[in-house]
Every structure is written in structure tokens, then in C-alpha cells.
Design goal:
4-stranded antiparallel sheet; 224 residues; 60s Ribosomal Protein L30, Chain: A; alpha+beta
């Protein structure tokens, strides 16, 4: 007796990504557009065409992200949560890299570390690559990195943990080709909270205090 197994039809989704300038809304051609899996691992990369378009095919219900990188712009990515649509359009808006410079600081999205760890995560690397872009654009720029923890745990331990995180951050940037003389880092532990709440902090307040700061010492735009 032979069992007949019914094959399920393949279900694919066409991802249509458009890369645009966040300020002007104009399409950006020549951007490197990558399709990553849900963990941020690259599956395939293409260049955006003259209309800023890049197309990919994924399976239905598959979680993925589309990331766009272009010289002179801050990288950005869009998350795709499982869809069954035949076509799925996403727009990736890129900000000019200079917009991340606010006075004497470089304002990145939060650099998150795993609990009690100092290694650079995939998400942290995505943000730190923006710092590398800026420092490449301004070759005389010198940056100090300060890492802060929340107030949970012994103060001395937190200071050591934050120092390891700052040093790991600096080493990552150096590994991307930035001269070690241009970047240094140190940990502040829980000594300089953004929100003064001591032991009565909410989870949101803890998160605000658990941060990295990137201070431009010299060589920034408009600096002597």
C-alpha cells in the first residue's frame, strides 16, 4: 500500500525595498541593500537601482530584516514580521551622517550589551559602524567613549563592568581601521546617572542610566 503525500505549494513573498533620503525623500541609487535573517545574519546583498529599488524573495511567514548602507549616510534597517502577501513594500530612509553629530556628541541609538557581559552584539556593531563612518568622514576627529551602568549590583563591580564595555567598544572601532590614537574609553559605573533615582529606579530609568556616550574631543565639524 502506497501513501500519497500531498505537497504543499511553495509560498514566496516579493520584498520591494526603496532607499530614500530622509530629508528630501529622493531615491538613493547605489546603496548596499542586504536581506538578513531574524538574527541579523546576511543572506544576500544587492545595490539599489536608479530608482532606489532592490528586490528580494523570502518564504511566507519568514521573519527578516532589510538593511541599507550608503557612504555619507547613517545606516538603517527595517524589520519584516512574517507575511503572506505576494508583494511587500518597505521604505528605508537614510539620514545624512552629519545629523548624528549634536554639539560635541555623537548621538547613536543605545548600545545594548547582554546582561553582565561586555562583548559586542550584532545590534551594537550596527550602531558602532555609524561611529566608524563619522570618524572616517572627519579624519582629525578624536572621540572619548564613556560607558555607564545602572545602580543594580555592587558599585565597584559595576565600575569594572562598564570599563570592560568601554574598552571593548574602543577595540571594535579600532578593528574597523580607526587609529587607536583617535579613540579612548573608560567606565563610569553607576557614578554619573542620567536619572537620579538611586535604588528606587523603574526599569525605564535603569535603562536610561545604562548607556554609552561618545564625546568629540577635537576635530569635529566647526571645531578649531
Amino acid at each position: 500500500v502506497y501513501a500519497i503525500k500531498k505537497l504543499q505549494p511553495l509560498c514566496d513573498v516579493l520584498i520591494i525595498a526603496t532607499v530614500v533620503d530622509d530629508e528630501t525623500g529622493e531615491s538613493i541609487s547605489g546603496a548596499s541593500v542586504s536581506l538578513n535573517d531574524a538574527d541579523g545574519n546576511n543572506m544576500v546583498s544587492k545595490q539599489s537601482d536608479e530608482n532606489g529599488l532592490a528586490e528580494f524573495i523570502i518564504e511566507c511567514e519568514e521573519n527578516a530584516e532589510v538593511e541599507a548602507v550608503m557612504e555619507g549616510y547613517s545606516s538603517n534597517k527595517v524589520t519584516i514580521s512574517g507575511t503572506n502577501d505576494e508583494e511587500f513594500e518597505v521604505q528605508i530612509a537614510l539620514q545624512p551622517i552629519e545629523k548624528l553629530i549634536v554639539a560635541d556628541r555623537i548621538e547613536l541609538e543605545p548600545i545594548y550589551f547582554d546582561f553582565d557581559k561586555a562583548n559586542i552584539t550584532t545590534k551594537a556593531a550596527f550602531e558602532l559602524d555609524k561611529l566608524v563612518q563619522i570618524m572616517n568622514k572627519y579624519p582629525d576627529m578624536v572621540v572619548d567613549v564613556f560607558s555607564h551602568t545602572d545602580s543594580r549590583g555592587p558599585a565597584a563591580y559595576n565600575e569594572g563592568l562598564s570599563d570592560r564595555r568601554a574598552k571593548t567598544t574602543v577595540q571594535y572601532v579600532i578593528s574597523k581601521g580607526i587609529d587607536e590614537a583617535r579613540i579612548s574609553g573608560s567606565g563610569k559605573g553607576e557614578n554619573e546617572p542620567k536619572v537620579e533615582c538611586s535604588s528606587g529606579c523603574t526599569e525605564d530609568e535603569h535603562q536610561l542610566n545604562r548607556r554609552s556616550e561618545f564625546i568629540i574631543v577635537s576635530g569635529g565639524p566647526g571645531m578649531q
